Structures are given as C-alpha cells and as structure tokens.
Amino acid sequence: MLLPLIRTRAEVELGMRYGRYPAGGVRGVGGERAVKWGLAFREYLQAADSQTLIIPIIETREAAENIDDILAVAGLELIFFGPADLSAAYGHLGEWEGPGIAERILDLRARAERRGIGSGVMSLDPVDACKRRDQGFNLIGLGSDTGMMIRSSNAAFAALSAKPAPNIWF
Question: Is-contact 27 15, C-beta < 8 A?
Fold first, then answer.
C-alpha cells in the first residue's frame, strides 16, 4: 500500500494503522477477492498484516525534512521517492531532479539504509534504472504501464520507419 504526499511521522503512523487489522490497526475486515470470496477468510486474515507492505512516498519537502522522524516509525520497511514531485516541492516544477534533488534523495536513501529500511525510486528509462540499482535502491519503478507501451510502440515505429517497405501502412 502506497502512502502518497506524506509529510510527518504522525501521517505515516496513521497510514500504518489504516493498513493493518486490529489489534495493531483499524483496517476493516472485508473484501472479496483477498479472502477468495469467503473460502480463505481465516487464512487471509492470519497472514495479511505480515504480507502487506506499507510504503510512504517521500515526495514533499516536509517529508524530506522530517525523514529521521519518519524512519523511526515502528514497522516501516521501505520508503519510496518520487523525484519529479520532490523536485517540484523544492521549487523546480517540470524538472525530474532539480538542483540538489538527486543528492538529497541519495542522502535520504542512505539514512534509511542505516536504519535497515529499504528504499525505492521511480526511474526514467532502463539506463536510469540500472544507475538507481547501482546506487543501492531496493525497488525501482520502471514507469507507468501506459508510458512503457508508448515508448515501446515509438521504438517499433522508429525501427520500421528507418527503412520503409512498399505497401506497409502504420
């Protein structure tokens, strides 16, 4: 479960409570697919909390500045960075990583790692994804499904257009 637009420790703690069943949380018992339409009700509820990863997205200036308090939240296993949103929060709207943002993300990632907390980040393309892996990120977003389909289609059209064949329509 992703927790977007987190700013404070209290918000992460609230998100953790909403993502867990009682007694540790306040999540409602329900759902159809998760409990296999009632066929695995008890089994699901016994395992759900241990199988649910609650991930705050560090994409606000406040979250970056409160990172040490956020990282102290009990049960936190992973944080995720939104570079473009974090960049915008620091006044660099429209830049993937404005001045100082790449370094800030790496510093925050290192702080998480020192506490045994993993970190993830969105990447721009396969080259950027490899760079992020080499920087020590544990989870790397490759892009949206639609964006990946568009890039793949554009690459295919470019390859086909490089040497057009007669009677081909696209």
Answer: no
Angstrom distance (rounded) from CA 70 to CA 63: 8
> In this structure, what token pair is assigned to residue 166?
């007669």
Q: What is the pLDDT of residue 40?
A: 82
Cα dist from 28 to 17, 25, 40, 51, whole Å: 11, 9, 16, 16
Could you give the CA distance from residue 139 to residue 120 in angstroms, rounded to a whole number? 4
Residue 170 CB partners (closer than 8 Å, separation 6+): 157, 160
Q: Which residues of the chain have pLDDT under 50?
A: none
Q: Which of 139, 51, 146, 64 is nearest to 97 (CA)?
A: 64
Q: Look at the block and give the residue holding tokens 């890039």.
A: 151
Query: Is the preceding peptide bond at 34 cis, omega within 30 degrees of 0?
Result: no
pTM: 0.84
